[in-house]
Write a structure and sequence with these properties.
16 helices, 2 domains, alpha/beta, Rossmann fold, 18% strand
């Protein structure tokens, strides 16, 4: 069994970290034992008990923050002592894990890198990013946009950059038939958005589109799931609208999706869009903005609708199309579910990653 070390210098526990855990879990039956190294400042340590099912072992590095240069020494020594077959760096942003590139290089450990939240860097940060990526043997891009960005930064991209989409476990969505109690009247049309309440997620444009449609469809409701820095501002601004519901952070996402007629992700910038995949796996028709991974997930007009980012009128038109055409909603929901089963499962993600590992390690 090949021994893999996942490493991240993130202070957070969010979507990227859950994807790492899911990948580690599904690599195990494919012959890979995955361990995880992270800093003592990270919120990952609060989840160490939950992570035991996915990781063979976790290593808590005694570093104070993501900029602590001791990341390099502790990780290099860990790689040398434990003799891992491969180091997989998980970058929570394009400038992350910079000490780890050197640690892996000097420990003579093959390096694979995944960017989980890709965006364009500039100036000195871009030069550092390019220099770090030179130390990487294989680079995983999570979307076609990400693939294009990364291919421009490295030499011989055809041999080094590979696209592997994120995935989900279908069970919680396919096997769940319960609906959430949303305290919304029977017969209402429910629009749902599951996203961090951050300006880049575009909630403002979805709410504007919803309010314009309310005059025509008084039974229309908008359900917003998530927390974040603009949550209180949005609540204060729109609290007078009785058809706008702020649910905060929830564990029962599959049940909420089962209670949904149309799912919308209105992001201005989106790394991938796992919530789109989750909605499609739940048999819900989706609308998303044409950015990042969304255009990889949705075949526009077949398995969902794409709208320009930052355009509330386009969102309104897309919503009206699906509200007025229940047959089209059903067709898109069916097509979306089949697309997820084919392309966006955790098993597929792990299988393609395992193949990349095996090719790199020479097996």
């Amino acid at each position: 069994m090949k021994r893999i070390l996942f490493y991240t210098d993130t202070p957070n526990y969010g979507g990227a970290e859950r994807q790492m855990e899911l990948l580690a879990k599904h690599l195990k039956p494919l012959g890979f034992e995955v361990s995880l190294a992270y800093g003592m400042y990270s919120k990952l340590d609060e989840k160490k008990d939950e992570m035991r099912a996915a990781y063979a072992k976790t290593y808590l590095l005694p570093v104070l923050h993501k900029h602590d240069p001791r990341h390099y020494h502790y990780l290099r020594d860990l790689l040398r002592e434990e003799k891992f077959d491969l180091l997989h760096l998980h970058l929570w942003n394009p400038g992350a894990c910079r000490y780890a590139f050197w640690a892996g290089h000097h420990a003579k450990t093959p390096i694979v890198t995944t960017e989980h939240d890709p965006f364009e860097l500039s100036g000195l940060k871009k030069l550092i990013q390019r220099h770090c990526l030179r130390k990487t043997d294989r680079i995983i891009a999570i979307s076609s946009d990400n693939f294009g960005q990364l291919s421009e930064l490295v030499e011989n991209p055809k041999d080094r950059v590979f696209q592997i989409h994120n995935g989900i476990e279908l069970g919680p969505y396919l096997d769940n038939h319960d609906k959430a109690s949303l305290q919304i009247e029977t017969g209402a049309i429910v629009i749902t958005c599951v996203a961090e309440m951050h300006p880049r997620k575009g909630h403002k444009f979805l709410i504007e589109a919803f309010q314009r449609l309310q005059k025509e469809y008084p039974m229309l409701h908008l359900v917003l799931v998530g927390t974040g820095p603009i949550e209180q501002d949005l609540k204060a601004r729109y609290r007078a609208n009785p058809n706008l519901h702020f649910l905060g952070w929830r564990k029962d996402i599959p049940q909420i999706l089962r209670s949904t007629d149309v799912f919308v992700l209105p992001s201005l910038r989106e790394a991938f869009g796992l919530s789109i995949v989750e909605a499609m796996a739940s048999g819900v028709p989706v609308i998303a903005t044409d950015t990042g991974g969304a255009r990889d997930i949705i075949e526009n007009g077949k398995s969902g609708l794409l709208a320009p980012p930052g355009d509330s009128e386009s969102l309104r038109n897309a919503l009206k199309t699906l509200i007025d055409n229940p047959g089209q909603r059903n067709d898109m929901a069916k097509n979306g579910l089949e697309r997820v089963k084919s392309l966006f499962t955790a098993e597929r993600m792990a299988r393609e990653t395992a193949e990349l590992y095996e090719n790199l390690l020479g097996d």
